Amino acid sequence: PNYKKFKNLEKNDNRLILLDFLNDNNMELYKDIYKQYPNSKFILQKRNKNNWLLSRCNFMNGDYYKHCNNRDNTNYSLQQYIKIWSNNYDKHYQDVNNFFTDNDNFFNYNLNENNSFEKLKKFLEPDFIIKNIDNIPTHKTFNTKYKLQDIINYI
């Protein structure tokens, strides 16, 4: 996996934190990582489902579903992929939340919630010190080949 380091974190002890490396192709790795590092902090980043689906539709200049067809040796339409992705989204968030039920080292980082970054900081402290951050990282879809009204009927 591609482990990324969060620039604004300083380790305060010997525990390991893995942030921002699970992607859509290896979403089940969290179970294996938990087995190897059960005392680590786990963060599930959640964004609005419709915005996430729209971002997927617009990824790779609107041709991500074609890439998925090539990768998976399938011939699904964009509309079929929207339904698949929508179901995968729901299943993944449900599975992760069920897996980490009552685990104090798990945090749901909801990007659409007020004060979500402050809650994340509180979750990470005192194990990690978060330095001042001028620009909180966000994800933006720049290419807008598809609009929400183009995909909403397939969700």
Summarize the structure.
The protein has helices spanning 29-36, 49-58, 64-72, 78-99, 116-124, 148-151, and strands at residues 9-11, 42-46, 106-110, 128-130.
Describe the structure.
- This protein is of the alpha+beta class and 155 residues long.
- The protein is 40% helix and 10% strand.
- The chain is built from 6 helices and 4 strands; from the N terminus they run βαβαααβαβα.
- It has helices spanning 29-36, 49-58, 64-72, 78-99, 116-124, 148-151, and strands at 9-11, 42-46, 106-110, 128-130.
- The chain starts with 8 loop residues before the first strand and ends with a helix.
| Quaternary organisation of the protein chains | single chain
Percent of residues in β-strands: 5-15%
Q: How many strand units?
A: 4
**Largest sheet, if any?**
2 strands, antiparallel
Structure classification: alpha+beta
Following the backbone from N to C, one meets helices and strands in this order, namely EHEHHHEHEH
- Give the overall silhouette: globular
Helix residue percentage? 40-55%
- How many helices? The count is 6
Average pLDDT taken over every residue: 77
Radius of gyration: 17 Å
**Low-confidence parts lasting 5 or more residues at pLDDT below 50?**
1-10, 12-22
Distance between the termini: 30 Å
Spatial strand sequence of the major β-sheet: 1-4
